[in-house]
Amino acid sequence: MTSSAYAQIEAGGVSSEAFPPGTTWYAGEGLKKGDFFSYSTCYVDYKECANFEINFWIKGDKVVGSETKWLAEVVVYDGNKVIVGEMELGKIAPEPTGGTPELGVYRGAFKSSIAWLSAFATSDGSSGGKGPKAFDAASWGKIGNIGGQQVVPLEIATITVPAGTWETVAMSWKTGGAVSKVWIADDFPFPIKAKTYTHVAEGIPPPEYDFELLIYENRSDSPFVGIESTVDQLIESGCDTDIEKEIYVKKSSKNFRYQIHTVYGPEHPVQGCEIQFLVSFLKFSDETEFLNQVQYDIFVVDDDGLQIRSIAQEEGRLYLYSPSGQALIDFIVKEDPGTANYVVWIYGLSPDGVVPSGPSDYLQIEIPIYDSDGSIPVEKIPSWIKNNAGWWADGTIDDNSFVQGIQFLIKEKIMKIPQTTQGSGGGSDEIPAWIKSNAGWWANGDINDATFIQGIQFLIEEGILKVPQPRQSNTSSGAEPPAWYN
Question: Which of 121, 173, 301, 318 can bridge 133 by disulfide, Cβ–Cβ 3.0-4.6 Å?
Fold first, then answer.
C-alpha cells in the first residue's frame, strides 16, 4: 500500500486512513517496562558496517541524580563474541547515556542507527528536545553536514521483517546519489527497518547503517537468564581484555599487487584469548592511498600452506569486506602455543556481493602464540645448527663466533626463544663451562632441544648474549648464516 507521496518527493509529507493528518511520532513513543527488542544491525564506524545482533529488555526505571532514565538489560552477539550488560536510555530521547563499559561501541552504534531519529523527533519540545513530528509535515529537519539533505516523510509502505508485517512511514533523504530510508510505525518506539548510505563525492556510496527488527514482545521476566558473556569468560581465564595493538608488520603482498600494513596486539598472544588486527590495504605504488571495496579474509594455515581456519567462515560470511581500505578484526586465538601462520588474503577489489575480477594476493605473518602460563614451547631447531654447536664444544670455533651465530639465528627467527628478560651485563662475559658441555651433548643427541635452549636463555639473562626485540624484525630468510669458521 503506497500513498500519493511520490508527487511530493521534494517537500515530503504523507497521510492515509492509517495515518490521518496530524498523526505524530517521536523516538521512544510507547516505550514501556517489559519491552524486549532484538535487532540485526550494523554501523559504518564499527568495523565498517559488519553485522551484529543487539537485544535489549526494558527492566524499569533508574534514577540518576535528578533524572529518571530507562534501565535496559542488553545482550550483543557479535561473531563469536557475546557481551552481556546494561545501558541507560533517556526518557525524552531514548539515547544511551551510560552502562556497562564493554558495551560502549555497541551503545554508540545503537545511538547512531536505531535511535538516530531522536535527533529530529523527541517526546518533549519544551525541555531541549525536538518534540513530536507529524507524518504530513513537509520536512522533519536537515542533516547537519555540509550539503545535508532534508529528512522527509516520503511514502507509506507495508513492510515485512522477521518480527512481522508492519504498516510504516518511510523517512527518506538523498545523499551522494543514494536514497536512504528509515521505516517507522506509529506508536512504536523504534524504527522497524533502515537502509542508509554514507555521503560520497563519487563512486558507490557504502552503507552508513542497516538494521531490521527480528523480535518484539513485552514480557515480565528477563530473556537473558543464564547467558554468559565471553568477555567475563576471558577475564576469568586470565586474558587481557584491554588490548594494545603495538606490533607492526608493513610489507607488500606476495605478488606485489598491494601494500598491507598491519598492527596487532597483544604483543604476546595467548591461546584461548583475544587478538586484534588493524589492517590497512594500500596501493602498491603509493603507500598513502587506501584501496576501496576490499574483499578479504584472515586465514590460519599449516606449515604446508593448507588452510585450517577462516575468520570470515567463523562469522558466517563468505568473506570480510572493507569499503574504505582499513579494517579492525578481532577473534579468539585457537592455535596451539608455538608459531602460528596467519594469512591476510585479498580476494580482490569489488563492491560487496560482486565477485572480484582481478587475481588474489596475500601476506603471511608468523606470530608466536603463548600458553596461558606465559610460555611458548621450544620449536624444533634446524639440524644444521647442531653442527655449529658441536664445533664450538670441541673448540673449532671460539665463544664470540658462537654468540654471534646464535644472535643471527634469533634475529632471523630461525631459532625461536621463549620470552626472556634481557640482562644488562656488567659481570663476566665468560660463558660457563656447563653451557659448552650442554652444546656438545645436544650436538650428539644426548640432551633435548629444550635443555639446550635453557642455556641460551641463561646467556640472555646474564647479558652475555644480546638479542634484538621481536618487533625489530618482521622478516626471516630461513637461510644459514655466513660460515662460522673456514
Answer: 121
Of 154-163, 269-278, 362-371, 412-421, the one with minimum mean pLDDT is: 412-421
The C-alpha cell that represents 177 in the structure block: 546519489
Cα–Cα distance measured from residue 385 to residue 406, given in angstroms and rounded to the nearest whole number: 9
Tell me if 84 sits within 8 A of 232, measured CB to CB: yes
Check: CB of residue 260 under 8 Å from CB of residue 252: yes
- d(Cα 262, Cα 147) in Å, to the nearest integer? 35
Total of domains in the chain: 3
Q: Is residue 230 part of a domain?
A: no
Q: Provide the residue range defining the domain that includes 39.
A: 4-218
Write the DSSP string, 14-76.
Answer: ---SSS-TT-EE-TTTT--TTEEEEEEEEETTTTTT--EEEEEEEEEEEEETTEEEEEEEEEE
Task: Output the pLDDT for position 378.
Answer: 55
On whether the CB atoms of residues 69 and 89 are closer than 8 A, the answer is yes
Q: What DSSP state is assigned to residue 335?
A: S
Q: In whole angstroms, what is the distance from residue 319 CA to residue 313 CA? A: 7
Residue that is written with C-alpha cell 586474558 in the block: 239
Q: Identify the three-state secondary structure at position 411.
A: helix
| Residue-wise pLDDT tens digits, 64-78 | 888 899 999 999 999
pLDDT at residue 443 is higher than 60: yes
Q: Classify residue 481 by its DSSP letter.
A: P
The string of pLDDT tens digits covering residues 98-124 is: 899 889 999 999 999 999 999 999 998
Residue at 363 is within a domain: yes
Q: How far is CA 81 from CA 228, 314, 322, in A?
A: 10, 11, 20
Confidence label for 481 from pLDDT (cuts 50, 70 and 90): very low
Classify residue 379: in a domain, yes or no. Answer: no
Residue type, 237: S
